[in-house]
C-alpha cells in the first residue's frame, strides 16, 4: 500500500494537453513579428515626424535585425539555466517597453533606443520559445508543436503587419505602436495563466549528444543559405509584382494572398515533419527552388507571375518550422541554443538576401534576375540538406 501511495504518474506531454501553451506562444510569436516588421510600413510617417531622411529612418529596421543577429546566441547561453516561463515573460515585457517607448518618443534617438530594446527581446524570445516546445511535448510530436507556434509568426506577416500599418496610416503611427503595447499586456496575462513552469538546461548538456554541434552546424548553414536565397527575391516582391503589371492598389491584397498561401504550406508540412522529416525537408526545399525559378519564367505576365509568387510563398511558409524542428532534433539536450542559432542565422540570411537582391536589381539582366539568383542560392541550401544526411535524418 505504501508503494502504491508514493507512485507518481509521468506528466502528460501529448500535443492536445500542451495545446493551450502552444497557442499562447503562437500569439506571442505574432506579437514579436508584428513588433519587428511594423516600422517597415510606417517609415515615411516616422521620418516626417522627426524630419529625418529615408536612409536614416531605415536604420530602425537595420538596428533591430542587427541586435538579433549579434545577441541571440550570447543571450541564450547566458540564460540557459534560468526557468523558461519567467524568461519568456521577460521578453514579452521587452516588447511592451519597446512599443511604449516608441509610441511616446519625443525624439528620433528615443525611437531608435526603443528599437534596441525590442531587438534584444527578439534576440532571446524565439530561442526560448523554440526551446520550450520540446520540454512540454513528446519528442515524436515536436515538429507539429513547432508548426503550431510558427502559425503565429506567419500570421504576424499576413495579418499583424498589414492591419497595424493600416491603423497607423489612419490614426497615426504612434497609435499603432500604442496598440501593440496593449496587446503585449494581454499576451503577458495569457502566458501567466496557461504556460507551465519548466526548468532551464543543465550544465554541459550540449556535450551529452555526440556530434550535436556538427549536426547543428549543418542545419543552421542550410537555414542561413536558404533564407539568403528567399530574401534575395522576397525583399523586392513588390517590385516584381509591379514589373508584371500589378497596380499599386493591388499590392496589399496580393501580399495578403501570399501570406495565406504560406499558412497552407505550413499546415501541410506540419502533418508530415515528425513522421518523415528528411523527405519533408528535401521536398519543401526542392519545391521552393522550382517555384522561384517559375517566378523568373513567369515575368512579365501578370497572371502567371501571381500564380508563381503565390506558390513560392506557399512553399516557404513551411521552411522556418522544418529548420526549427531539425535544429532541435540535432541538439535535443540544448533546444534553446539550437533555436538561438536558427534565429541568428535567419536574420543574417535576411540581411544578406536584401543586399544581394539590391545588386541583382541594379544589374542589366532585368527584374527576373532576382528570381534566378535567389533560386541558385536556395538550391545551395538544398544541397547542404542533401549532403547532411546525419543532420537531416530519415
From TrEMBL:
One Pfam assignment: MFS_1
Primary residence: membrane
Keywords, sorted A to Z: Cell membrane, Membrane, Transmembrane, Transmembrane helix
Localization per Swiss-Prot or TrEMBL: Cell membrane
InterPro entries to which the protein is assigned, alphabetical: MFS, MFS_dom, MFS_Efflux_Transporters, MFS_trans_sf
GO cellular component entries: plasma membrane
Residue ranges occupied by any Major facilitator superfamily (MFS) profile domain in the UniProt entry: 21-394
GO molecular function per UniProt: transmembrane transporter activity
Its membrane topology: Multi-pass membrane protein
Domain of life: Bacteria
Residues that span the membrane, as ranges: 56-75, 87-110, 116-133, 145-164, 176-196, 216-237, 249-269, 281-303, 340-362, 368-388
Protein name (Swiss-Prot/TrEMBL): Putative major facilitator superfamily transporter
